[in-house]
Amino acid sequence: MDFALSDQEKMLQAVAKEFAVKSVQPRAAEVDRSGEFPVDLAREMGRRGYYGLPYPSRYGGSGAAYLGHVLVLEQVCQASMTAGAIMAINTVPEEAVFIFGNEEQKEAFLVPLAQGRLLGGIAFTEAETGSDPKAITTLARKSGSGYVITGEKHFVAMAPALNLVLLFARREGAGLNAFIVDTSSPGFIVRAPYDTMGLRGLGTSVVELDGVYVPQENLLGKGGQGFDILLRVMNLARMSVAVEGIAVAQSALELSLEYARQRKALGKPIAEMPSIQWHLAEMAARIEAGRWLAYRTAFLRDQGQDIGYESSVAKLFASQTAVEVTRMAMQVHGSYGTTRAMPVERLYRDAKMTEIYVGVSEIQRSIIAGHLLGKRRSK
Ligand SMILES: Cc1cc2nc3c(=O)[nH]c(=O)nc-3n(C[C@H](O)[C@H](O)[C@H](O)COP(=O)(O)OP(=O)(O)OC[C@H]3O[C@@H](n4cnc5c(N)ncnc54)[C@H](O)[C@@H]3O)c2cc1C
Question: Is the CB–ligand 1 distance for residue 260 below 6 Å?
Answer without folding.
Answer: no
